[in-house]
Design goal:
The protein is of the alpha/beta class. It has two domains: about 210 residues, 3-Layer(aba) Sandwich (Rossmann fold), CATH 3.40.50; about 180 residues, Glycogen Phosphorylase B (Rossmann fold, 3-Layer(aba) Sandwich). It has a seven-stranded parallel beta sheet, with helices on both faces. Helix 3 packs across helix 4 and helix 4 packs parallel to helix 5.
Length: about 400
């Protein structure tokens, strides 16, 4: 029996289920996009959904305007911030307890570490029947020093004991959490983060126009990166790769789209490449950029899944990426791109040159990636799977009883 068919015939229509999504901030990033679209595409005949967020601060930009444009109110938790802040965290905890009780939520679904811990503890204390958490990757490698990392591991262990289910983006992500003693395998389910594949159709048709605007004329080989300009994304290795490739491949050109705290540092590092390396800043036309590239490079030091690799695949663009986190679950080494060790600019350069010099292989990889991504990783598919999980938990907790 499917999850949507769980209520018994003759029992009347199931009641509406109230769901609260809680996230620390709505900056530009995969976790935030995932949460936004899960709320936007919710089945409103079945679920009443609220989005709760702390203030959006940081160099990465914000998606709050897009959220509001979609008609989604942001319920603000003013003291919910990313860094550890004992006073603010305590205030947030008690505010969330009151909010959850007042909202009479059936499901609280938390996202990322800080909102994940405070939201799950508050949900338990407020008597919320169902608690779901999506870590959106982990902060166990490459983010913080050893002591702060252990604090976050403790937080995730503590939160797992208050979770009915934990959604991981990849099977590799499940193994990483279990290796840290976080939760039990039965608590985990794998649901990939989806993307909107529709804009990539038009983007492919605009390839030559966009390449021209990026200074990639006839014969140019365009290598790109897209993401937050933060250390965890590894773009310092991207720049070093570009220097090595440019030295032996005169047709190579490089673009890097995004913003973050390393913007000035990376620009200084790339100065020797002159006009062959362009910083594009934050962009709202990622599908067009992906379709314009000959190759995407994702040199991350840690990655929950690698949403950018799905976007490249939807555009039919092959990729070179670090073998970290959930990336090997998304990029098929040798079939849709090449995996290399992290923190290794020479390995990046070798893989990039290998594919730039083999256009037929590179194009076949792009086509294979597109054939994989478009049917499997759409937003609607992601949201449907999340709501099927909700229905399983609703059934387990008998929340429709007496509906």
């Amino acid at each position: 029996m499917s999850a949507r068919a769980l209520p018994m015939a003759g029992a009347g229509p199931p009641r509406k289920i109230r769901v609260a999504h809680v996230i620390t901030r709505l900056c530009k990033g995969g976790a935030q996009e995932n949460t936004f679209h899960t709320v936007r595409l919710a089945n409103r005949t079945r679920f009443e959904v609220d989005l709760i967020s702390g203030p959006t601060h940081g160099h990465e930009g914000s998606i709050e305007d897009a959220v509001r444009a979609a008609g989604i109110p942001i319920l603000r938790e003013p003291f919910l911030v990313r860094p550890p802040a004992p006073v603010r965290d305590t205030l947030t905890l008690y505010r969330l307890i009151r909010r959850f009780r007042a909202g009479r939520y059936d499901i609280v679904h938390t996202h990322t570490s800080k909102a994940g811990l405070l939201g799950r503890v508050a949900a338990e204390r407020a008597g919320v029947p169902v608690v779901v958490h999506t870590p959106h990757g982990n902060v166990f490698h490459g983010y913080f020093n050893r002591y702060l990392t252990r604090l976050f591991v403790w937080m995730e262990r503590h939160g797992a004991r208050r979770s009915d289910r934990i959604i991981e983006l990849t099977a590799g992500g499940v193994d990483e959490h279990l290796a840290e003693g976080i939760g039990q395998r039965a608590q985990y389910t794998v649901i990939f983060s989806g993307i909107d594949t529709a804009p990539f159709e038009e983007a492919v048709a605009q390839r030559d126009e966009v390449r021209g605007s990026l200074g990639a004329g006839a014969g140019a080989l365009l290598v790109g990166g897209v993401g937050r300009l933060e250390r965890i994304k590894g773009f310092a290795y991207f720049v070093e790769m570009a220097k090595a490739v440019a030295a032996v491949e005169p047709q190579a050109r490089f673009v890097l789209a995004g913003q973050g705290s390393l913007d000035r540092e990376l620009r200084e590092q790339a100065k020797p490449l002159g006009e062959r390396f362009r910083f594009l800043g934050p962009r709202d036309d990622v599908p067009r950029l992906m379709a314009a590239m000959d190759l995407l490079v994702a040199p991350s030091l840690n990655e929950g899944m690698g949403r950018v690799l799905l976007e490249a695949g939807a555009a039919g663009t092959a990729a070179v990426a670090s073998r970290v986190g959930g990336i090997p679950d998304v990029l098929d080494d040798g079939e849709t791109g090449i995996l290399v060790p992290p923190r290794d600019a020479a390995a990046l350069a070798g893989a990039v040159l290998e594919l730039l010099r083999a256009p037929e292989r590179r194009q076949l990889m792009g086509a294979t990636a597109r054939a994989k991504v478009v049917p499997q990783f759409g937003l609607e598919h992601m949201v449907r799977r999340i709501e099927v999980l909700y229905e399983e938990l609703i059934h387990e907790k008998s929340l429709d009883a007496g509906g």
